[in-house]
Task: structure prediction
Amino acid sequence: MRLSFVAWTAFLTSRTFVDAFVTPNVNVNSRVVASSPGSRDPNRNQVLRSLATKSEDEEKVAGKVLEGGKVIDFESTRGPSRAEDALRLAKEEIASGNVKEAHLSDKILGINDDVIAEVGHDLGLFATNDEIQKCAANLRSKAAQGFFERRPSSVADTYDEINSSTSIAPEQKESVTKILRQAFVESGEVTSAFAKTFYLGTQLMPENQREAIWAIYVWCRRTDEIVDAPRDNDDEMLSDLGVWETRLENLWKYGEVEDVFDLCLLDVLIKYPSLPITPFVDMVRGMLMDVPDLGTETYDTFDDLHLYCYRVAGTVGLMCLPVFGCAQGYDEIIAKEPALSLGVAFQLTNILRDVGEDATTRGRVYLPMEDMERFGVTKEQLFEQRVDENYTNLMKFQIERARMYYERARRGVFMLSEESRLPVQSALDAYGKILDKIDDNGYDTLTTRAYVDKWEKLSIIPFSWYRTQDISRKIPLPGDKQIPSLEEPAP
Result:
């Protein structure tokens, strides 16, 4: 089971964002009382209270508190794990020039045969390296002075010198513009092929935002493909991933690119200069948590699972936040916690929806072991796909936890710029609907997959639109509660 990038900005579906990690920061979250998307049970809080086993002085629900309380921000925390140590060593080999090139794909890294087959044609091969580097030089010339560091005698430095020494001829400008435009077209095709719900959400955005989100999605997709591609051993994967992360660092630091899809990400970085590299790096760490023999086989506590959810989905919220933009009076610092919460909500929804599939086809269990033990559910039961009262109660418990994160995320919608609210709210509502479907299926996620079809998703949009209007905060839709008070705007 891989990340919900669909969820993220469905948002968001792929799965899965230094060497040094710090102790988790603890933030205090204001009381949340609004109903979550897809919530239809007025007595659900009573159900939760009956399920909770810890005292009120401790955390009520497996390391989190439903009605407000602390939210652990796992950004750049924990580790290093075995996989992270192995990746660090691979990057050291690359830096020393000892990396073996033999196993690297002769195609664009992360765009393998499966991706090409899904889209239906070759990708990223419409421009020569010379054309790509000229386009990159043109993009770098648009960045603020000093935004990128210079690396003397590098390819980027050479092309920048040529670009700055003579004015760009009209036909050359037309050529580089055409290359970038086609790169975004193919990014949209990849997004549409692998994340249809996500792609539908992007159609509600202005062009610049839509293309930026496609570029981010393609980077996540490629990272996923690099980790999952069949290879003889993990060393080859780590070497490819080391090359990939080094490329990312060089793009952020020097504005260097290797292919046309890098051009898209470079364009996004220049247009949205507050875009941080941290969530991209953390997503790689999340991908590694799924690698057999290197990653995490089970999650003992919800805090352990929360780290995974942050890395493979919460990171996407942080990637997208600069693109979405904030409403006047708010900033990305204030909007960060709701963005993280939405990513975690989406990933928890994926996990609950795919319990049976993950167990039977991948041999993976993502549900926290402490919760399974509390409700009397065993791993063998998941592998045998046996649904009983214990499993039903466990699912009810996990669904309410996911809804808590949706509730926290709802507070952030009005913190976003007006043009970004509808796509995010639509994604929030559509993905939250999956929890209702699990309810409708009798909480059987072992043999039945909860599914929201295209027409249901489209039918949600008018209601999502109303929820983005100021009047909805005073006159909520039937079944909705008033959105909790937002934090005070930033001065």
